[in-house]
Amino acid sequence: MPTILVVDDHEEIREALAEILEEEGHKILQAADGLQALEVVASSRPDVILLDIAMPGMDGLETLRRLKDQPESSNLPVIMVTAQGDRQNMVKAVQLGVRDYVTKPWEPGEVEMCVNWALKAASVVPNQDPPLLAQSA
């Protein structure tokens, strides 16, 4: 069972993402900020990280930079899930090595598709096809 870390300072967003991904059969870990996310990654080694940008303290871009700077987490797929859909943040995230970028509010099936693609690319679920967006709409 793949493990997904959901990082967002808003509990209702974390819970919504957790519910969606638990229905897909994933184990969910949660963190409320970037520092807590780094601690969870160090102790639990998730398969994929969903990461918000706008968080108090350490924002998602700094968290992503630190994850990619550490050898033990540099290859972890990170998907930004954020209301910050501006081009500047997207470019920064891509330069830092983000796997995918989802803007809030996300479309039905979008998060599941991105997570499944990330897992497939990381060979965590090698024979699982991602859900189609049209099936969820």
UniProtKB/TrEMBL annotation:
Pfam family, any one: Response_reg
Gene Ontology molecular function terms on file: phosphorelay response regulator activity; transcription cis-regulatory region binding
Residues annotated as domain Response regulatory: 3-119
Presence of keyword Disulfide bond: no
UniProt cross-references to PROSITE patterns, sorted A to Z: RESPONSE_REGULATORY
GO cellular component terms attached to this protein's record: cytosol; protein-DNA complex
Residues carrying 4-aspartylphosphate: D52
SUPFAM superfamilies: CheY-like (SSF52172)
Keyword Transcription: yes
Protein name: Response regulator
Originating species: Candidatus Lucifugimonas marina
